[in-house]
Amino acid sequence: AAAEKGGFETFMAKEIHEQPQAVADTLRGRIDETGQIVLDEVRMSDQDFRDIDKVFIVACGTSYHAGLVTKYAIEHWTRIPCEVELASEFRYRDPVLDRSTLVVVISQSGETMDTLMALRHAKDQKARVLAISNTVGSTIPRESDAVLYTRAGIEVAVASTKAFLTQLAACYLVGLHLAQVRGIKYADEVSAILDELVAAPGKIAKVIENLEPIRQMARDLAESKDGAARVLFIGRHVGYPVALEGALKLKELAYLHAEGFAAGELKHGPISLIEDGTPVVAIVPSPRGRSLLHDKIISNIQEVKARGAKVIAICEEGDAITASHADFVVETPASPTLLAPLLTTVPLQEFAIELATALGRDIDQPRNLAKSVTVE
Ligand code: G6P
């Protein structure tokens, strides 16, 4: 079993380290010589893609968080309205869909019953369905009109890591594909983003080389009396779904009460949870470019610090402003805002694994959870 884990203590640790390769594999060969993105199986014409006037992304769990990130990218790159919904909710209401709606279903296993039912619900209403899945030939891709496979390889740990990062990579490709087939408004931006995507695996590897500080924080927290109570995660823009994913990892692995919030919502309720010593993990956007967003999260950090929070900030390297406000910082390489989740998620995965290990949890097989949920 030790050999299967490639020298790591757990499959999850191994899979965290496989992320640069998994993302590189998922991108490889997907951009043809004309710079067009290539889907694997497409039972839809370019005209079908041009006719799309609305996108729904439907998924569960970690895959849903990949969908949330994608909404920001798709709406920015394509100007097509995009909604993201949990499969178990989508299926039992009356979403407004027709032939010009693209429903993107994201499922690592390709067998999640909630997502499969949502897919069938969409097809009953004649919507086009594009699947993003890690499992070739599984039910969800088989029943979809188009497929883009992630190439994470087999993910053994119940808590998803490399599958999530490859879902993000695939989702970015889908967003760029939509932008391209529809005539590109941001042609320069799209080609710059493609270059940045190709550079992402190297940056993810850098994040992985620099995980010891977050491990230390997790161990300190596990020993402190506040550490085992609750952890809050805050973010804005694509940092918000990253906050949700960080909190989900901690719930799954450490059995801690962890919640992710849109930082702007703090004042509408969650800030009342802050007590002296409450750990708050803040996902900080790049200080360059969208500095407004950066200013806003710095204010949020100040608000929670004023109430006693202990702030761990995930920020871009060299972000001196964040370093001067937070108690601890974990730096990630510079990246365009929309692609930053490929980097900022990784320290949160490590945070969860380390805290859970310190609390004596079973990392690869958390209680009550299954890798693939094939019942509703
Ligand atoms: C289960 C797993 C999660 C996963 C979710 C969706 O709850 O424990 O890690 O994110 O299912 O799975 P899927 O295979 O559809 O992506």
TrEMBL record:
<dbReference type="GO" id="GO:0004360">
    <property type="term" value="F:glutamine-fructose-6-phosphate transaminase (isomerizing) activity"/>
</dbReference>
<dbReference type="GO" id="GO:0006002">
    <property type="term" value="P:fructose 6-phosphate metabolic process"/>
</dbReference>
<dbReference type="GO" id="GO:0006047">
    <property type="term" value="P:UDP-N-acetylglucosamine metabolic process"/>
</dbReference>
<keyword id="KW-0677">Repeat</keyword>
<protein>
    <recommendedName>
        <fullName>Glutamine--fructose-6-phosphate aminotransferase [isomerizing]</fullName>
        <ecNumber>2.6.1.16</ecNumber>
    </recommendedName>
</protein>
<feature type="active site" description="For Fru-6P isomerization activity">
    <location>
        <position position="371"/>
    </location>
</feature>
<dbReference type="GO" id="GO:0005829">
    <property type="term" value="C:cytosol"/>
</dbReference>
<keyword id="KW-0315">Glutamine amidotransferase</keyword>
<dbReference type="GO" id="GO:0006487">
    <property type="term" value="P:protein N-linked glycosylation"/>
</dbReference>
<feature type="domain" description="SIS">
    <location>
        <begin position="45"/>
        <end position="184"/>
    </location>
</feature>
<dbReference type="GO" id="GO:0005975">
    <property type="term" value="P:carbohydrate metabolic process"/>
</dbReference>
<dbReference type="GO" id="GO:0097367">
    <property type="term" value="F:carbohydrate derivative binding"/>
</dbReference>
<keyword id="KW-0963">Cytoplasm</keyword>
<keyword id="KW-0032">Aminotransferase</keyword>
<feature type="domain" description="SIS">
    <location>
        <begin position="221"/>
        <end position="366"/>
    </location>
</feature>
<comment type="function">
    <text>Catalyzes the first step in hexosamine metabolism, converting fructose-6P into glucosamine-6P using glutamine as a nitrogen source.</text>
</comment>
<keyword id="KW-0808">Transferase</keyword>
<comment type="subunit">
    <text>Homodimer.</text>
</comment>
